[in-house]
Specification:
Radius of gyration: 20 Å
Low-confidence stretches: none
Number of strands: 11
CATH class of the largest domain: Mainly Alpha
Mean pLDDT: 93
Number of domains: 2
């Protein structure tokens, strides 16, 4: 593992929408230093959720005061249910009522739900405001805060209403991860694993050796170094793909490895906390590798390696572990509404470890059989 010195920067080159992803241990303690060159004299409108507000409202407000920034704070309910039309309407009405102007900046302080919702508000209000991402979960740090995807869920599926709207910057403090429940940390780790499975088999091997250390409850300096390396590697992978395909016309779809299955599982569970996004992604990636094996696109050893590693870090890997009655046909119905569907064909990201590719025209009877097997077969530990 290369030296990280508890800090790293990843640049995402997108012309006049380019920005840096700063990863620094203890960054939140002097947030004003990082905001100063980004904000100038603009007012800052912080959007967060109840759990994060309880932990970080005081230090963040103190940092804004030290920097001489005028700050406004808005707190939402935690959980995926807040990524809804109702929450979006309530938030935008509050922001407008507070007198927000086009020159102001929204700061998204929270996990993926807050980043997606606040980013969509920034994209929509007054036809577009600047915003900054300060992600507080591993999932948001390695995935949802980077790349400019914003949006909300609908009864028809996840993230079906939204916009591409790049942030001015992403500011990541890995020390925040120490406050996460282990379940949330594991959910984010699924997105880290994704980058190894897409096109970086060496990173997947590194995670097989170091994954358990990344998920430790009491971080020491060595663990934080590993977390920064994993976050940096993940952000570099995503930045590389987004720079080549910002609006998901081609290669960016690879970032949805496992997500066709995952979004269907989430929708079927009703976004009520029964299944976290990262848990669904972990199960979805196993399904994607299983489908790849059934189609002759990957060796069974690839699927088994992923399952073995997920078991080793005590993560969910089978739909049978979900505390919800599931049906294969209902899941297929959700999958048909996925954003990657084209001309009525569901898009699946398939292939062996490190060589993922988009596939369409997949035999849905094969998918149905796979789903049924996953739902009905209780996994061995």
């Amino acid at each position: 593992m290369p030296e990280t010195s508890c800090a790293s920067t990843v640049h995402l080159p997108l012309g006049d929408r380019s920005y840096d992803i700063t990863i620094k241990s203890g960054l939140l303690n002097n947030l004003e230093t990082y905001l100063a060159p980004l904000v100038g004299k603009a007012r800052i409108f912080v959007i967060s959720e109840e759990t994060v507000t309880a932990l970080y409202e005081e230090p963040v407000k103190a940092a804004l005061a030290r920097g001489g920034f005028e700050g406004n704070w808005f707190t939402l309910k935690p959980g995926e249910a807040s990524k809804s039309f109702a929450s979006f309407e309530a938030l935008t009405n509050e922001l407008l009522d507070s007198g927000i102007e086009r020159s102001d900046i929204i700061l998204a302080l929270g996990g993926g739900v807050i980043g997606d919702l606040a980013g969509f508000a920034a994209a929509s209000l007054l036809r577009g405001l600047s915003f900054i991402q300060v992600p507080t979960t591993l999932l948001a740090q390695v995935d949802s805060s980077v790349g400019g995807k914003t949006g909300i869920n609908t009864p028809f599926g996840k993230n079906l209403v939204g916009a591409f709207h790049q942030p001015k910057a992403v500011l990541i403090d890995p020390n925040i991860l120490a406050t996460l429940p282990l379940r949330e940390l594991k959910a984010g780790y699924a997105e880290v694993l994704k980058y190894g499975l897409i096109d970086d088999p060496e990173f997947f091997c590194w995670l097989e050796e170091n994954g358990a250390a990344l998920l430790g409850i009491h971080p020491d300096e060595a663990q934080i170094e590993k977390q920064i390396y994993a976050i940096k590697t993940s952000c570099e992978a995503k930045a590389r793909i987004v720079a080549a395909d910002e609006r998901e016309a081609g290669k960016r779809a690879l970032l949805n490895l496992g997500h066709t299955f995952a979004h269907a599982l989430e929708a079927e569970c009703g976004y009520d906390g029964t299944l976290l996004h990262g848990e669904a992604v972990a199960i979805g990636m196993v399904m994607a590798l299983d489908l790849s094996v059934r189609m002759g696109l990957a060796d069974a050893n690839d699927r088994d390696r992923l399952i073995t590693h997920l078991k080793a870090v005590n993560m969910m890997w089978s739909a049978a572990e979900i505390d919800q009655k599931l049906e294969a046909d209902s899941l297929l119905s959700h999958m048909a509404k996925d954003k990657k569907s084209k001309a009525g064909q569901i898009g699946f990201i398939l292939g062996p470890i490190g060589k993922a590719a988009m596939h369409r025209g997949v035999d849905l009877d094969l998918v149905r059989a796979l789903l049924h097997a996953s739902i009905c077969t209780k996994p061995s530990k």
